[in-house]
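In this supplementary section we document a worked example of the pipeline. Step one takes a protein sequence of length 156 as its only input; no multiple sequence alignment statistics are reported here. Step two produces a three-dimensional model, which step three serialises into structure tokens for compact storage. The input and output of this example are shown verbatim.
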Amino acid sequence: MAYVFDTNCFIVIGHYYPEQFPRFWEKFNQAVENGKIISVREVYRELDRNAAEDHLIEWIELQKNMFVTPSPAVTQLVKEIFSVPHFKASLPDRTQLGNNPFADPFVVAQAKVMNYCVVTQESERPRAAKVPNICGHFDVDWTNLQGFMERENWSF
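The serialised model returned by step three reads:
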């Protein structure tokens, strides 16, 4: 199985300091190197604005190639996601008015196009426009970080 990581997952693993969690970072880097973990350009842009941990900022810059640019198929699926009025309403006003990144639909679309699993720390909530809800609507597999580690049989 391969995975598309959401922004919030990188923020969480930013608290896994490499000196204290070397085995985690070894496995994580190997999965990135093998193409088993990817993300999207919009996640990179969100992290560029929101990542606070120095080691994470440095790591992101070294792994910049894992953040893929949307293909025409992904862009088309993002349009389909926003054709659902409920999901279009989730687009923050600040994004519509400015140049602020909004990764959620790109994460789901990338996973759908590549038949990957989304990894997000968001929770599914009734009538919400969260990543898990979008995944459910478009039949995309998803999990959280703990689920990812369980699926990969990681324990430390």
